[in-house]
Amino acid sequence: MSHIKDVTGGTPIVLESLWKTYANFVAVSGIDLSVGAGRFCTVLGPSGSGKTTTLMMIAGFVAPTRGRILVSGRDIAALPPQKRNLGVVFQNYALFPHLTVFDNVAFPLIMRRVPQAEIAQRVERMLETVELAGLGGRYPRELSGGQQQRVALARALVFEPRVLLMDEPLGALDKKLRSSLQIELKALQRRLDVTVIYVTHDQEEALTMADQIVVMQGGRIEQNGTPEDLYDRPATAFVAGFMGDTNLVRGVVMAADKDGTLRIDHPTGRRIIARASGFQAGDHVAASLRPECLSIESPDGPEEPENAWDGRIAAVTYLGDAIRYHVAVGENRPTLAETLVVKAARRGTEHRRFSEGDAVRVRWSRSDARVLPPTRADARILPPMQAGGH
Amino acid sequence: MALDVDGQATVRVSEAAAERPPVRKALPGGQLWLLLPALAFLAIFFAYPLFDVVLRSFRDGQGGFTVQNYEAFFSRAIYIRVLLLTIEIAFLTTVFSLIVGYPLAYVLANSGPTVRSFMMLCVMLPFMTSILVRTYGWMVILRPNGVINTVFAGLGLGEIQLIYNRSGLMIGMVYTMLPYMVLTLYSVMRGIDGRFVAVAQSLGAGRWSAFWRIYFPLSMPGVAGGSLLVFILAAGFYITPRLMGGDRDQMLASIIAYQVDVLLNFNFASAIAVILLVITLACFGLYARVVGLKQLLSSKV
Amino acid sequence: MTDKAHRNSYSRRSILGGLTAGAAVIAAPHVVRAQSGGRVLVRTSGGSYQDALQAGTWNSFTQKTGIEVVGVAANTGKLLAMVEAGSRELDIVEGNAVAILTLQAKGALQPLDVSRFEYTDPKDIGTVGPDFLSYASFAEALVYNTQAFPNEHPKDWKDFWDVSRFPGKRMLQDAKAIAPNLEFALLADGVPVDKLYPLDIDRAFAKLKQIKPHIVKFFDSGALGASLLAEKTAVLGSLWTNRVETLRKGGAPLAIEWNQAMRLTEYTAVLKNAPNRDAAMRLLDYSSSPEAQARTLPQIGLSPENKRAFEFIAKDVAETLPTFPAIASKGFEQDAGWWLKNRAQVATRWEEFLLG
């Protein structure tokens, strides 16, 4: 658990050992999470990781098996959704198709019995904020995907909730529109000073917007930290693999020096020298090697120097600004063979230096190899004292 | 940033929309012949008999052209009364079918697979039995010394007349029409995204508000379609009114049957049938105007 | 018989019948002979009626002549539509007076040459028209529940109208069944039997109006009428006597008061464009014979129109049949001619009466 200091006013959210279990399935297994007021927290994970269940528990659509959900310090776990006063934006927006844009946005205000005149004012202002002024009379089906997204946002924010929950809200949009909306959304969140919990499976999106990223896997929190933390210092092999592309090379620590230098042997007999603390001889580990940190060259002499593996180009992909090489190493022992992905930046007008079948040498420096414990066991553990509930 | 991005988005969406329509486009000419069997079937078994009925309605006993059949209908207050009664009974049947069918369809559409299969079977079961058998079944339950009145008598309550009057007719009619109403509603309700109600609740709506302001309007195509279907079917209904209705529950279909079977007056019967058809079409037209035909014909929300 | 409840089970029955006949062609030599002798298509109202015809008349006819008999499902309306459409799928029709007289008026009936009859003496037949014969009759009679009236029961239509002496729910016939019971209303109002026709429509409806509050239902099919009485929904009513016999056999506590019962006649004829005219004439002849009628009609509560048929019917059965002399003398015969002329007018009056 990393604790993030409140940088703005607003409302913090705290989850305390939150569980959701079904008859024979644990969806969320006792997570703790604290999101500071006004922070943009992205919950990232593959499908089935429990991220949406967590969000739905906060929104009130799924009852937690046990645990507390604190908003401004008050436990809302037992409140029905309509009493929680949280803005929610769903995937595909779920705009009411039979209501106009204006009526969609006015809906939460009508439910709160806001006077008619004030409703009109606040809706117009909100539509301006999301740059939809003048479209109030349209029906959702008459809007583009991006516009619909803004209506959903306006509707979730018009009643000035202190927390906004979003479930893959940009998932249905094309890439280009998505990236511009990401920036816009972030700016809006800053301006309105609202705490956001944003669920996505897209790590790029997470990196773009979040102040805080929570990676979930198998109903647990794998790592919780800033985008930089997660990308540069993944705590587990799973996080490393999930946050961008990486080569995870598994091996066993053969020797651990006092200064933190590790010698890791790969089953093919190859070796990785890296620096990391907290490991000892005999540990099974995974070394994360980011493709952009690897270099590729023609093999020079028969002997492999430190952190240099010889192999053969299995595939070449032209990326425009870079070239990606798939290098097969350990061909002599097919069952243990490993493919390293190398992303080499293009220099000048240089095209492909190597082509399929070429013998090459892949190199990296000690500091580029990040040694991680293997992914946490996937086993979903039942919560203590099942009967507890709340 | 919004403007240019939106501009692009709009273009993209309209492009996508332009690509999508194949679904709505007519079949390519080369495949139109696939419709021939259906068209031939409709022409032979639907259009021709209908045409024949219309022709007959303008014929006199000697086979010459006349409007006397229509004159006979409209000059008699009694037939106008039966016409109005027919509309009244069909309307009441529709209203009660909706009142009973809506909650049923709602539960059906929003319950788990086990409950749904069981309920679906219950709803469909009457479809698989002869209408005559079903009607006699109801008669056994409702008649003066039938099941209900026996229970009432056992409880020391007086005998109530449940059959051979309007209440008997309504029970029989609603029971018969319920599957049509429920299945039409169900097909629309199944298509309503459950998240709409969830969103409404997250926006501050209580269960009732969420239902009334969101779910119910979204189910309107089903309400409209089911009501129209039941109204049209009920307006032409024949067996149940005769077996379970009272002497005052006279409907046009029963008069048509009487004219054909007993009085052997085909021409007058045809005229009444045409009038019933026109009234039904008029109701359909009025309805389509009010509700919107597009909404009526599409069960999609 | 205009019994509507029978119609539904009918087509299936005839299909089954057809299948059985087909199987029999392969199995039984005498049916092979039957096929070589041609066939006759007969319109019936189906159900138990057709079963009785098959067992009592058609089977022996086929054995004697080698002519196969096929029943065709059609109610009166459908029958007329078939004739009008020039259908050649029908040889013999039977129906009530209205149907037969309508067909006659259209010139659809084949003149009969009764001198060529070999099984039937035309003199024994109730009515012999130029192109039709009377075939069977039934009656509409006052029927009462013996448990409701254990000591004294209503003995005529005046009693039927007397709700203080004979309390209880009643039923009468709807116009949609055959015709409304105008005759009974007039008899209740004191019109003597021999002065009934032409019916005083206004007077009859005025009398019907008196009893209307006590009518649980004007039944419009024999099945419904039977069920109303059998289930004691009504304890008193007019009903077709053949129906009552069936109910009594089933244990219903019902009895017929033959006094002032109204007889209705069913007629039979050969269609002019009958595809099997000669075979049809032979069947018409055979069906009218005393033996065939005695074997067929009492089984279903119908009375033979061949008076010699009673020679072959047990006395206790004969006493339940409306044309049995001792019974016939208590009642009267419906004037089909009057109804043919006036039914359309009565129909409209009837609707007004129901809704009035």
Automatic annotation (TrEMBL), chain A:
GO biological process assignments: putrescine transport
Domain ABC transporter: 13-243
Pfam families on file: ABC_tran, TOBE_2
Positions of transmembrane segments: none
Keywords: ATP-binding, Cell membrane, Membrane, Nucleotide-binding, Translocase, Transport
Broad enzyme group: translocase
Listed InterPro entries: AAA+_ATPase (IPR003593), ABC_SmlMolc_Importer (IPR050093), ABC_transporter-like_ATP-bd (IPR003439), ABC_transporter-like_CS (IPR017871), Mo/tungstate-bd_C_term_dom (IPR008995), P-loop_NTPase (IPR027417), PotA-like (IPR005893), Transp-assoc_OB_typ2 (IPR013611)
UniProt catalytic activity: ATP + H2O + polyamine-[polyamine-binding protein]Side 1 = ADP + phosphate + polyamineSide 2 + [polyamine-binding protein]Side 1
Catalytic activity, EC: 7.6.2.11
NCBIfam families noted in UniProt: potA
Assembly and oligomerization: The complex is composed of two ATP-binding proteins (PotA), two transmembrane proteins (PotB and PotC) and a solute-binding protein (PotD).
Function: Part of the ABC transporter complex PotABCD involved in spermidine/putrescine import. Responsible for energy coupling to the transport system.
Official protein name in the record: Spermidine/putrescine import ATP-binding protein PotA
Species in which this protein is naturally found: Chelatococcus asaccharovorans
Gene: potA
TrEMBL record, chain B:
Protein name: Putative spermidine/putrescine transport system permease protein
Localisation per UniProt entry: Cell membrane
Ranges of residues in domain ABC transmembrane type-1: 83-287
InterPro entries (alphabetical): MetI-like, MetI-like_sf
GO CC terms in record: plasma membrane
Keywords: Cell membrane, Membrane, Transmembrane, Transmembrane helix, Transport
One Pfam family named in its UniProt record: BPD_transp_1
Membrane topology: Multi-pass membrane protein
Species whose genome carries this gene: Chelatococcus asaccharovorans
Transmembrane segments: 32-51, 82-105, 117-134, 146-164, 170-189, 222-241, 262-288
Family, similarity comment: Belongs to the binding-protein-dependent transport system permease family. CysTW subfamily.
BP GO terms, sorted: transmembrane transport
CDD domains: TM_PBP2
From TrEMBL, chain C:
SUPFAM superfamilies assigned to the protein according to its UniProt record, in alphabetical order: Periplasmic binding protein-like II
GO cellular component, one term: outer membrane-bounded periplasmic space
Database matches in InterPro entries: SBP, TAT_signal
Gene Ontology molecular function: thiamine binding; thiamine pyrophosphate binding
Entries under CDD domains matching the protein: PBP2_polyamine_RpCGA009 (cd13589)
Subcellular location: Periplasm
Chief location bin: periplasm
Keywords noted in UniProt: Periplasm, Signal, Transport
One biological process term in Gene Ontology: thiamine transport
Pfam family, one: SBP_bac_8
Organism superkingdom: Bacteria
Similarity annotation: Belongs to the bacterial solute-binding protein 1 family.
Protein name: Putative spermidine/putrescine transport system substrate-binding protein
Organism the protein comes from: Chelatococcus asaccharovorans
